[in-house]
């Protein structure tokens, strides 16, 4: 890490306070017992590219002992007690942050979503852009808009968008991005792209389709508070058919083809080229 850890621990404590507050609301029924917030994944370094998704999975979440856990139970009174104790333990907070930092280095990454080194999914797409979660240069990190794991996938929760727009949740993401100081923000999905234009100081001025893969649309704009470019994807590299549905595009290519490593890299490379042509790179 680039500092003594105090600022990161302070940020984590603020997120835990929000988790405790959510645990006192009707959101409690979706929260996970023993989980702690995951504010970022990847080593914090100077001016990283930051990808933004929805929230950590309950299939693989971080507990208050800084251990990745695969068995999820509902949030309850004991959960709040554990979080209250965690707030007093700087050593445990540091251990949790160290897990953030070493996530892609210690064989602990959730490869079903991120993809393996040299594989497809988000990793393959980012390889096309010229980055990798498993390599050091250029620095690449991941952040979730809702840093708290939920028992169900967020996509199945009807009030998902309402929760993602809660003032305390959007403020936490603002603070996290301000702490990480990204060089570029990449939004993984249409709902995130739209929300950032509604809630955050983001505007878009360019919309494009990827040449050989016209169903893959993207938007380029600016995060005005941070002064950095934003790429908003209308597809999701880690999901089946890139969340575009099981059908063919206007060129007759089935969306299933979009998910191969070759296609993912080509899509990423096309977006990178558009980015460079704008003078953003």
Work out the radius of gyration. Answer: 18 Å
* Beta-strand content estimate: 15-25%
Q: What is the count of structural domains? A: 1
Q: In percent, how helical is the residue content?
A: 25-40%
Total helices: the number is: 10
Strand tally: 8
Distance between the termini: 25 Å
Compressed to H and E, one letter per element, the order equals HEEEHHHHEHHEHEEEHH
How would you state the average pLDDT, rounded?
95
Most strands sheet: 6 strands, mixed
Q: What order do the strands of the largest sheet run in, or round the barrel if closed?
A: 4-1-5-8-7-6
Low-pLDDT ranges = none
The general outline is globular
Q: From the helix content, strand content and strand pairing, which structural class follows?
A: alpha/beta
Describe what you observe in this structure:
The chain is of the alpha/beta class and 281 residues long. The protein has one domain. The chain is built from 10 helices and 8 strands. The radius of gyration is 18 Å and the shape is globular. The model has no long low-confidence stretch (mean pLDDT 95).
Short description:
The protein has about 280 residues and is of the alpha/beta class. It has helices at about 5-20, 75-85, 90-100, 110-115, 120-130, 160-165, 165-180, 190-200, 255-260, 260-275; strands at about 50-55, 60, 70, 140-145, 185-190, 200-210, 215-225, 230-235. The protein has one domain (about 5-275).
């Amino acid at each position: 890490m680039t500092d003594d850890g105090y600022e990161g621990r302070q940020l984590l404590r603020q997120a835990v306070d929000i988790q405790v507050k959510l645990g006192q609301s009707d959101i409690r029924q979706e929260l996970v017992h023993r989980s702690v917030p995951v504010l970022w994944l990847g080593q914090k370094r100077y001016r990283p590219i930051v990808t933004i998704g929805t929230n950590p999975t309950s299939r693989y979440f971080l507990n208050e002992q800084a251990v990745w856990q695969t068995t999820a139970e509902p949030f309850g009174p004991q959960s709040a007690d554990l979080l209250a104790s965690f707030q007093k333990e700087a050593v445990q907070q540091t251990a949790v942050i160290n897990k953030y930092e070493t996530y892609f280095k210690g064989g602990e990454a959730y490869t079903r979503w991120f993809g393996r080194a040299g594989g497809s999914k988000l990793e393959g797409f980012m390889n096309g852009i010229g980055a990798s979660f498993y390599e050091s240069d250029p620095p690449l990190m991941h952040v979730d808009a809702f840093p708290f794991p939920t028992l169900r996938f967020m996509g199945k929760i009807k009030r998902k968008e309402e929760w993602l727009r809660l003032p305390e949740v959007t403020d936490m993401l603002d603070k996290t991005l301000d702490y990480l100081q990204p060089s570029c923000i990449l939004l993984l999905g249409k709902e995130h792209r739209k929300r950032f234009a509604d809630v955050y100081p983001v505007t878009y001025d360019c919309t494009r389709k990827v040449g050989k893969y016209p169903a893959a649309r993207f938007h380029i704009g600016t995060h005005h508070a941070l002064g950095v470019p934003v790429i908003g994807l209308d597809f999701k590299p880690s999901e089946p058919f890139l969340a575009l549905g099981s059908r063919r595009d206007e060129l007759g290519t089935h969306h299933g083809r979009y998910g191969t490593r070759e296609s993912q890299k080509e899509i990423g490379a096309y977006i990178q080229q558009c980015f460079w042509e704008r003078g953003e790179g």
